[in-house]
Amino acid sequence: MAHAQATGSRLTIAVVATVGSPHQPHGADVIAAAREAVRTHKGGLSIRLIERTEDCTAEVAEAVAKALVALPESERPQAVVGHLCSPAAIAAARIYAEAGIVMISPGARHPRLTDARRAPVVFRLAARDDRLPHAFASLIATRFAGRRVALVHERAVQARAIVDATEAQLRQHGIRPVLREAYVHGERAYYATIDRLITADAEVMVVPTQPVETRVLLSNLAARGRRMTVIVGDIVAAVAGEAAPGDQRLIALFPWLERPPVSAGASKTAPAPANSPTWTRSHAAVEVLVHAARRAGGEFTAEALVRALETELAPTIAGPIRFDTRGDPLVPAYAPWEWRDGQWQPLAP
Question: Which of 1, 46, 84, 304 is the most buried (most CB within 10 A)?
């Protein structure tokens, strides 16, 4: 691994935003947040930002990373805040790792970003997708202990993998599901599935994926006169909430700092946050880098920055942050929200 050196006492951070991608509607917030973090930082550290954009694809992200690495040594960044999309971040991380440039992705959720690190300079500030099964099992073990749990999923590989991991985690908590049911994607009704849930006397149903099918399942439950607690992932919650009949209890797990979509008919008692989660995580990424640079005492090598990132608890706009030795943040991965009074609200303690 090469080593990116400091230019005097100046810390240079490249900020890579995602523009023009439907997958990242708040992609431009990366640059806005970084500018604000630099503008409001205290402590006398000299910081320079290099601003770049990409489109969420691996090809463009790799090209951007190579161009940053190719800059003259006096202009080359010691750290990068970006890339948001997992394919882009994974592709770019290889380039930064080989050059000894610290990278913090504010948005990539795929486990491979940090699981396959080529050097210990790659970090993330977004929740890992594979933490969802842990969150399902923890929620059930702590809030629904003793209830009869059913796992319902479509037959696609991703859904099966999530449910496999959820079942394994539940068994570690001493919980054995009373039913595991796979359905065929795209059906208009799932009454056979509902009947098997009723026969198993299930009280809690976990549906990790497929929002449209979850909405059908909720409707079918109501038609059978069966009330259950239904626990879903954030991708399901986008449409399941407003479709949930009043006699079903619906709980969704959302990644760290993410907030559920606001219902069109929701009350305005809880104002929407001023900034997107992407903005908040990007701001925090700059803050942890600045904190690490201060702790490094002006030695802005990759080794010094990484050492501080993994050992120092940095104060940020998102709360105190430190990373584990794999590069993942030591923060709660997912938080439970409940559909109540026509809107998503944090699950009461």
Answer: 84
Six token digits for residue 130: 């594979």
Of 343, 125, 291, nearest to 114 (Cα)?
Answer: 125
**Host H or E run for residue 10:** strand 10-18
Helix or strand holding residue 160 (H, E): helix 157-172
**10-18, strands of its sheet edge to edge:** 46-54, 10-18, 79-81, 102-105, 122-124
Residue 310 has φ and ψ, to the nearest 5°, of: -90, -10
Task: Output the pLDDT for position 153.
Answer: 93
pLDDT digits (tens, 9 = 90+) for 323-346: 999 999 999 889 999 988 888 899
Prediction pTM value = 0.85
Residue 143, pLDDT score = 96
Distance, CA of 60 to CA of 198 (rounded, Å): 51
Pairing assessment for the beta strands 343-346 and 334-340 based on DSSP bridges: antiparallel
Return the sign of the alpha-carbon dihedral for residues 24, 28, 29, 34: positive
Q: Cα–Cα distances in Å, from 311 out to 58, 305, 322, 323? A: 31, 10, 7, 8
